[in-house]
Structures are given as C-alpha cells and as structure tokens.
Amino acid sequence: MQQITSKDELLSLLKQRVARPRATERFSTGVGALDDLAPDGTFQCGAIHELLAAAVDPLPVSFALILARAAQQHHKRASDALVAWSDPAHEIYAPALAAGGLPLRGLVLLRPRKALDELRIVMECLRCPGVAVTVATVGRLTRVEARRLQLAAERGGGVGLLLRRFDARSSAIYAAATRWLVTPAPGNEQCQRWSVELMHGHGGRVGESVLLEVDRESSQVHAVRPFATLADRPLKATPRRATA
Amino acid sequence: MMLAEACAYCADLLHLPATPDDDARALEALARWLVRFSPRVSPCLPHCIFLDVTGMERLFGGPAAVRQLVADALVAFGISAGIAVAPTPGAAWAIATFGRGSPPVVHDRDQMLQAVASLPPEALRLDGNVTVMLRRLGIDTMAALLRLPRNQLATRFDSIVLRRIDQLTGDVTEPLVFLEHQTPLRAAMQFEGAMENLETIHAAIQHLLKEVTAELTRRGQGARQLRVTLPRPYASPIERMIHLTRPARSVSGLLELIRFALEGVRADDRGDGFMGVRIDVVRSEPFIEEQSMLLGAEEKHAATEQAHLIERLHARFDGCMEWPALVESRMPERAMTCASVPSPQTCPPRRGARPTRLLREPQSLRVIVMPSEGLDGLPVSMTHANQVHRLPRARGPERIVGQWWDGRWKTRDYFDAEDETGRRYWLFRVVETGRWFLHGMFE
C-alpha cells in the first residue's frame, strides 16, 4: 500500500479509482498453444468456463486441474484463496490434485448430503470473493440457473469451471465465457494426451484444437498444435479478430 | 479379578461401592477450587486435572513455587496426588503418573526428553492392547519408542501413537477443554399457546437476539457458537447449533444464519406447534473492533467473506464442506483423510502417479496378461462393464505391501495402463489370489 502524505494525493487517487472502470481480471495457463486458442490469449476471471466431454468419454478432471491451478495462482491473495471442488460421489483423490500442483491448504471438497443442494452450494461458492476457483459437475441447466451461475461468478470475481456432458439435450443451455471439448487421445510412455477443442468463445479461435500433453511423472503440461490443422493454414499467421 | 476372589486372598480387605458420578463432581469441584492458581483449568476424567500455568511466573515466583503451593494445598485437603510441571500436558501427565525418580519440575524441551526417557510406554496414555503390543516388540521405555522411525510407527500402529508422541514433545498442541467461569448467556421466550407460524418465531428470535447481542456488547465479546432450541408440547425439542468462524454480534447476521439452520423445520403433523424459543450462547470470545481502512480494504473483505461463506454453508447444508489432508500411509485409500476443519498439512506429497478419481470400492475385472517368466506380467487387455479394452501401454508394477498384522490387507501390484483411445486406468492385481481390480482412473 502506498503512503499517502497529503489530502490532495488522496483525492487524486480516489478520482483515479472512480474514473477507471473495473477492468476484468484475466489469467493465463502458461501453456503456449492452449492460451493461443483462448480469446485474447487469456482466460477471463469472474466468469464460467465449461469443460465438456462426449457421452462415452470421462469428464476432464485433469484439464480442470490445470486451469484451476493457473487461476488460483493468479488470484490476488494466492496464499489464502480457496479452491472449492464439488465431489458428491466422494471419488476425488487429493494426492493426485496435490501432485498436479494444487496446494491442498486451500482446497475444500464440497460433499452435499442431498443431490439437489449441489447447485445451490456451487452458487454460494462462486459468489464469494474469497474463493478463487469453483469446480463442479453439472447436468442440465435451465436458462434461469445458467444466468444465475454467470451472475454469481461475476459478483465473486472467481473462476467457475463446470464439467458437463456434451450432447444436445444436456448442454444446450449455457452461460459460459468459453467452452472446451476434451477428448482423450493415445499417449506414449512419457505422457498422457488429450485433444482440446474450443467450442465457443468470443474472440478466440473457435473450432481449432490443440493436443495437450501431461508428463506422467512430473505433471508438466505442454500443448502441441496437431499437424493436420497446420497444413491447411497459409504461411502468414492470420490476424486475430479484435475483441470488444 | 472378582471381588469374592480378592476377599478370599485378603481377609480384611476394605471395599466400597464405586460412584463414578460423585467422583466426577468432586473432580470438577476441585478443579474449580484450583482456579486460584490459573484461569485455565481442565479436569480430565477419571482422576487428572491440567492447569495451564503459562505466564504465572511473575505472580507466584516460578513453576517450582506454583507446584509447591498446589502440593501443600492438596496435602491440606488430604488428597494424595502426583504433581508435575512440564512444557506440554502429555509430558506433565507422564511424569506425574509414572515418574517416581524424575524431577517434578521440567523447564524446557531437552530436560523434558531426558525426564521421560526412562518412563514406560504406558506414560503415553495409550490403549491397553497397544502397550501390550509395544512390550511384545521389546519396547520397554519411552526412549526406545522415541528412537523408532516415524513412518514405521505410522504403518504399524494407529495414528494415535504418533499423535501422542507429537503431543508429548510439543510438535502438536493438545486441545484441552477448560472450565468456563462466566454466567452462561441465554435468552428465552415462552409463548402463551403453541405457535406454528415460522415467521412469528423468526420475529421472536430477532427480539431475543437483541437481548443477547446487548449482553455480548456489554461483556465486550462476540458469539462463536449458538444453540437454538424450540420446545414442543408432546415431542422432544428441536435443537440447532450454529458455528461461527469469527466472533460476531450483529443481529441481522445471526438472524440470517438461524434462518438457514431452521429452514427444514416444520411444526408437527398433529399441528402442535412450538411452545417457545430459547437461545444459548455456548461459546463466546472477545470481539475486536476493527477500523476499516479506506484503501486496501479488498484483502480483508475477501478473508471475512470466506469466513461468512463457511458459516453460511455450515448452517444451511450441514456437513457439506470437507478439508482433505494427506496422511502417511502406503495404502492408497488411506492416504487421504477428510476433516470438517482445515488441518495443517504435515505430510509431504508422495512421488508416483496417482489417479485423479479413486473408486470407493475397487471393481473386479477380467484381465489377460502378457506371458512372461516372472509373475509381473503386464496386463494386455481387460474386460470392464462388459466392454473389452485393449491395453497397448502399461507401466508397472508398483508393489504395495499389505499390512499383514491387521490381517485384512493383501499385497497388491499396481499397474498404470492406457487403452487404445487414450483413457488411462489404475489397476491392481492381488498377488496372493491373482485377481485383478480397477481402483481408479486418470481422468
């Protein structure tokens, strides 16, 4: 906190604060090709990001872990910020989250006794400014619920990561800044791979995908553009669309 | 042995009927009398009283002087007791109960370790069967027990042994329940007849909260734990506990939490209603008035918001938040515990790949194994949920030896296998029976 020595300084600082609109915070994962897909190269805080999986694929918990770790480190009070992870089935394994780089000190598992309570608890956590990331699995949402989740995230300023199934019935209604479709891909001895495609995101490279590689031992993350998409591009990189 | 047998051995044996309730009351009375030596007194049944004499040196002239005063007082009462002063309650208990030859006043950690070195393992306040096991293993003194490596103690015995050792050396603070001194804070209202309408009851609660918060303000305290009781005419009363992370005394905040807690409460089906309302402040703490700063208020705001979130979720959805902690255990299902309060992370994260999703019960599989000379055949294909998955890549085995002394666990060989589509599974084979199970998925 800076030293204020005179009333004039205080007044000018307050005027600055009022004049400047509250800029939305953004965070980046640090994984080059993944950030390139996102709008503006960063992920928006104070918003929902949906991580989808096809009906036969498992829900992308590891991808959520990568985003949650990046968001938690970015949060203003990284040492105290909470990460709320919804786990009604009691199946999340904390040692794996710790190995993935998420500090367990701020991790709280939400285990509602009744399934109906889960959405309300998630909304409460999103609304709280002290919670950096909220991760939850949701099914079908009504328009009202989706809008409420978005408003709660905006008010709290944290990041909401919703894991959903990608089919017309369950995930037609959404209120997310970006939506990603994650499919497992064959890996090798060193790493496990997923193909991550941006389905929706204003100003991002919609429709393009990257291959995400996570090292098995060290949990280091790399992203690689698959060769097939590169072949169709012209040599000069296309300029990005300007965002509002 | 039975009383008749004892009388047979010793003809003029004096015996009296046991009165545990009277003993407990007498112990509490003695503890209240001992408040003159320390404001923090904790009676522990059946026959132990802890006094926290930290900071009493200037008043009494040192721990040895306090000990002498207490000893003289007890002699005057005609009570024979072992008295010891030590840096931790565990060490004080050990020296007082078992330390005939040790000095009764210990000033610092090295002296304490020296004093407890020759005491038997019973001095750790462990169960009988644990001490029998220790003696059978040849550990007769505390010094031998403290020399054993910690991870072996963790696997061999329950966590209680490590916890008692940490409490003795002072690495972990031992929570003691101290006697309360002040008159309890409560407010109650009785209705003329039975009241069913919850809105009216909320209005009554608001009125009572005004009284309670006025008294809290007068004492300079805030409430940490509240109990709301709604008595019913023909049934047991409904009770709800409200826990707060920080002392609070605002009527609107407490009313909101009580509203959440009473959300699911309805009057009886017979229409009997509630006869009144009672609010008890079970625990209160000094309330610190904080002056909010004009700038730099966002950080404090986030911390108080976190506290409010935890309170709201506890009041509205009981038991929905759990704080995981790593535990030193080789068995994967035991490597993580969940508690209802955040606990310090004392265990370092272990190396080795672990699945993000661990099934609660391992599921049985049929697996085809690559033939090889040894018994470490890598799995080649597995059948799960009526679907065959070929596993072109498998790593392992990671052998996790069962705890045979528990009699329940067998040795497992864990394999990290990936199928053709890229999904990664964590399988294990029980070495003794050769059966395969699926324990988790790397999602």
Write up this protein.
The complex is a heterodimer of chains A (about 240) and B (about 450). Helix content of chain A is about 30%, strand content about 25%. The mean pLDDT of chain A is about 85. Chain A has a 9-stranded mixed β-sheet with strand order 5-4-6-7-3-8-9-10-11, sandwiched between helices. Chain A is of the alpha/beta class. Chain A is built from 7 helices and 11 strands. The two termini of chain A are about 30 Å apart. Chain A has a domain at about 25-180: P-loop containing nucleotide triphosphate hydrolases (Rossmann fold, 3-Layer(aba) Sandwich). In chain A, a hairpin with a 5-residue loop joins strand 10 (about 210-215) and strand 11. In chain B, about 35% of the residues lie in helices and about 25% in strands. Chain B is built from 13 helices and 15 strands. Chain B has helices at about 5-10, 20-35, 55-60, 65-75, 90-100, 110-115, 130-135, 140-145, 150-155, 160-170, 200-220, 250-260, 295-315, and strands spanning about 40-45, 50, 185-195, 220-230, 240-250, 275-285, 320-325, 335-340, 355-370, 380-385, 385-390, 395-400, 410-420, 425-430, 435-440. The longest helix of chain B has 22 residues, at about 200-220. Chains A and B meet through helix 3, helix 4, strand 5, helix 5 and strand 8 of A and helix 13, strand 7, strand 9 and strand 15 of B. Strand 5 of chain A pairs antiparallel with strand 7 (about 320-325) of chain B, so a sheet runs across the interface.
